[in-house]
Design brief:
3 helices, mainly alpha
Length: 79
């Protein structure tokens, strides 16, 4: 896995942690959410894993196309 500069990594990790903490505080403070739902929401938020950086193969020409070669997109634009 390729990581950016350590200072950038730390800033991103802190930002993600702040988002998770803010979500948990928001859920905790809401009166309309029952205790079971609050617990489930907080457990789900706590189970989120942070992936910071990217795989080296991503930068190799054609690799991303090959990775998604089995995906079929159907575009249907109607005006």
């Amino acid at each position: 896995m390729h990581l950016m500069a350590k200072s950038v990594y730390m800033q991103v990790a802190e930002m993600l942690n702040d988002i998770k903490n803010s979500f948990n505080s928001l859920v905790h403070d809401e009166d309309w959410i029952n205790p079971e739902t609050k617990k489930a929401a907080q457990e789900k938020a706590d189970s989120i894993k942070n992936f910071i950086g990217y795989q080296e193969w991503l930068l190799k020409p054609g690799q991303l196309d090959e990775y998604y070669s089995s995906v079929c997109l159907v575009l249907n634009f109607s005006v």
